[in-house]
Design brief:
Strand content: 25-35%
Number of strands: 8
Number of domains: 2
Protein name: Transcriptional regulator
Structural class: alpha+beta
Strand order of the largest sheet: 4-5-3-2-6-7-1-8
Number of helices: 7
Helix content: 25-40%
Shape: globular
Order of helices and strands: EHEEHEEHEEHEHHH
Distance between the termini: 12 Å
Pfam family, one: HVO_0513_N
InterPro entries: HTH_bacterioopsin, HVO_0513_N
Largest sheet: 8 strands, antiparallel
Organism: Haloferax sulfurifontis ATCC BAA-897
Keywords: Transcription, Transcription regulation
């Protein structure tokens, strides 16, 4: 069993109108598809996270998109918000969805719709199923196989991957404001909490950050 990470750019006819909206507006960075109804027919219910702060503009675009039947927005602190959408699939959307919702494949969320027009998706399955999915992907601009490897389980950011001393350093850094914006603490504050040198405290934080970021990016 393997996982494959694909990246492709749908052509103009295949691109979802709301993805096109994100591409055309600098206020938005990307959208991430986190959840969807596994029973996909000519309608689909999906949950997106939209990375951008202009909620009013995004809602206005949704209201003008014919295939969107209903939606509801949940605002978050910061520059992103969640949205649940019920939409009607057109022919292009149905073909694109069918290629990655086969019975012998698992789609690992999130599916990322970048501001440059590209779509990134991770699939898990047998060699034959993955090969068939790649062959059946709708034509676009530059289908890229980003990564193929043995599936080793879901990637996760886990405190258990840190050593006790690294976890202690991270807890001290959070408590003293090292990770706040604006930053209100320094490595010296972490070192004082750990009763060690600043270079040792900095090393603990670097190694902890390396593990956490690696877990976050590496994925399945």
């Amino acid at each position: 069993m393997k996982s494959v990470r694909l990246r492709f750019a749908p052509d103009d006819e295949q691109m979802h109108p709301m993805h096109e909206f994100v591409v055309d507006h600098e206020a938005f960075e990307r959208t991430e598809l986190h959840h969807w109804n596994p029973t996909v027919t000519d309608r689909n219910t999906i949950v997106f996270e939209v990375f951008g702060s202009d909620i009013e503009a995004y809602e206005a675009a949704l209201a003008e998109t014919e295939r969107i039947r209903s939606y509801e927005v949940s605002q978050l602190p910061g520059d992103s918000f969640f949205i649940v959408v019920n939409e009607r699939l057109d022919a292009a959307g149905a073909r694109q969805t069918a290629a990655v919702t086969r019975g012998d494949l698992i789609v690992v969320p999130p599916v990322v719709f970048d501001g440059d027009g590209a779509v990134s998706v991770t699939l898990v399955g047998t060699d034959d199923a993955l090969q068939s999915a790649v062959e059946e992907m709708p034509e676009g601009r530059g289908l890229e196989i980003v990564r193929v490897r043995e599936y080793t389980g879901p990637g996760s950011v886990s405190a258990g991957s840190l050593s006790p001393r690294q976890r202690e350093a991270v807890e001290a850094a959070v408590d003293c404001g090292y990770y706040r914006e604006p930053r209100t603490g320094a490595v010296a504050d972490v070192a004082a909490r750990l009763d060690c040198s600043t270079s040792t405290a900095a090393e603990h934080l670097r190694k902890a950050e390396m593990k956490v970021m690696g877990d976050l990016v590496d994925g399945p």
